[in-house]
Sequence to fold (287 residues):
Amino acid sequence: MRKFIYLITLLFASLLCFAQSDFEEIEKVQVDTVCFKYKFQQGDLLIYRVESRDSIVFDDDIPLVRDRWERFIVKCDSVDKFGRFHLNLYFTDYSAVESKGEIKDVMRKSSPWINRKFYLVIDSVSNRIRSVAEDVTNAAVSPGGPYQPYLFFPFKQSCKVVNESWLVSSIDTLVENSFPPAIVEHSNLMRAEDKIDTLGYSCIKFRFIRTGEATYQMKSEQQSLQTNAIINSGGRLFISSKFFVPVHFFQTIEQKLRVYFDEDNYRVGKHFTNTYFTLEEFVRKNN
Fold:
C-alpha cells in the first residue's frame, strides 16, 4: 500500500511538471465530453511517418545522438464477432543520421527490423488481447531499442469530461520492438483534453504520463544478453473523431538501463527518445 501511495504521488507530481512543459501549451478547458475508442474496419490501411531522436550514453562514454525516419504500416485484416481488431503491422523505409563525438553525420539505411511483421489483436480501448511475431526464429531489435515508444497501448476507458483524469496499468508484450519481445509493466495517469483539428482531421485527444519497469532477454548459443529498464515518459495521442483511428502520437521517454552480459558483467546507461507518429495516408474501402 505504501508503494502504491508513493506511485500515485509521483504520478501527480510528474503531471504538474508535464503540464508546465514547453512542447505545447494547454488549451483552455471547456466543459465537454470526449469518447476515446478505436473503430477499425476490415481492409483499413494506415501509413505513418515516424520521426525520432535518440540520445544514448553508457557509463562515462561519449553520447550517441541519432535522428531516425521510418514508415509504419498498419493493416486491419479482420474484425471478429467480439468487435476486436486483428492488425498486421511492420516498419519500412528506415534511414538515420548518427553522431558520436568527433564522428559526425554517419548515414544508416538498413536495419534487421525493417519489414519484420507482427500481429496484434486489440479491443476498442486498445487492450492487447494477443500479440505475436511472424518470425520467431531470428532474433532482432528495432533501431530504437526494445522499449521505444509504441503506438498501440491500452487507455482502458472511453468517455471522459474534458480535463478529467484516470489511471491505467498494464503489462504489454512489445512484439513491435524486438524478438524475443520485451515485457513492460507500466502505470499511467491520463487526462482528457479538448477537441482539435489537426492534419486535416477533427480529433479527440488525451495526454499521459507513464512510469514503468521493462525487461528484455536474448539467449543464443553464441550470446546471452539481458536488459532491465526503469521508464519515465509522457505524451499525447490524437484520435480521429470521425473514423476513430490514431492520427498523431507523440511520446518522450527516458530509460535508465542496466545491460547484463553475465551476472557480474554489466553496463549502466540512459536512453532518451522523442518520437512522433504522423498519419500520412489512410485508406478505407467504403470511404
In short: Helices lie at 2-19. Confidence is low (pLDDT under 50) at residues 1-30.
